[in-house]
Amino acid sequence: MKIRSLAGLLVLVSALGTASGAAAATNRIHGTIVAVDARKHEAQIHHDPFAAMPMAMTMVVSVPKASDLAKLRKGTVIDADVDTSKDPWVLSNVTVVGKTKK
Asked: pTM of the predicted model, to two decimals?
């Protein structure tokens, strides 16, 4: 009986570890849109450092939801969720917070 309980506990701990690892792949980011390719549902963003990427950089992200993609224009400053477990990273829950000054 003790072996079954131990095995059940190990399965539970493993499942919890997997669930928490999946949650860690989504981060909130802040950045400026550099370019948008609506046909490919992609955007290029220059983002500030965040937990999964401790340096600012410019990169291409996927934007699968049309409602999020419609908010993006060159120069738009946004906050958004980014799923770093996908390649390219997936942007969602976009909030426009401003525009860059010209």
From this structure: 0.74
